[in-house]
Amino acid sequence: VLNNGRATVDTIKSNPIAFKGKSADEIAQMLRNEGYDVTVQDSTKSSSGAKIIKINNTGDNRNITQVQVSPGGGRHGGSPYVKISTNDQGIIKVVDGAESAYKTDGKETATIIFTGGD
User: Fold this and answer.
1) Domain boundaries along the sequence of the chain
2) SS3 of 56, please?
3) Segment 88-101, tens digit of pLDDT
4) Radius of gyration of the chain from Cα atoms?
5) CA end-to-end span of the chain, whole Å?
6) Are 43 and 68 in contact (CB under 8 A)?
7) CB contact at 8 A, 9 and 1
8) What is the mean pLDDT of each run of 10 residues along the chain (118 residues)?
9) Any idea what the Cα angle at residue 23 is, between residues 8 and 53, rounded to 5°?
10) CA distance 98 to 102
């Protein structure tokens, strides 16, 4: 899903299920394999037990600044999602499920990619 450490909307759209069912620790390991120095911590804003993967070495080809891994069940509905913040592609959110199950406030600026399903 990453191309030399870079996340793009196109590469993630081509394989959104790469994040499906992955824990924050598994995604952190994927990032480490791409040369990222990361720290996993609990989200302070989440009611659903989301985790934040903090990136300590953004730069060069590494454009990811933070990743949030949410199990779902919070304000966006029951679908788990992974929110990838980048310094050049904006925010890319991969939602595990159908668009119809996702709750949005209509103010989100993220590019949202749905894996489909019920």
Assistant:
1) 9-114
2) coil
3) 999 999 999 999 99
4) 13
5) 24
6) yes
7) no
8) 92 92 96 97 87 95 96 89 96 94 89 85
9) 60
10) 7
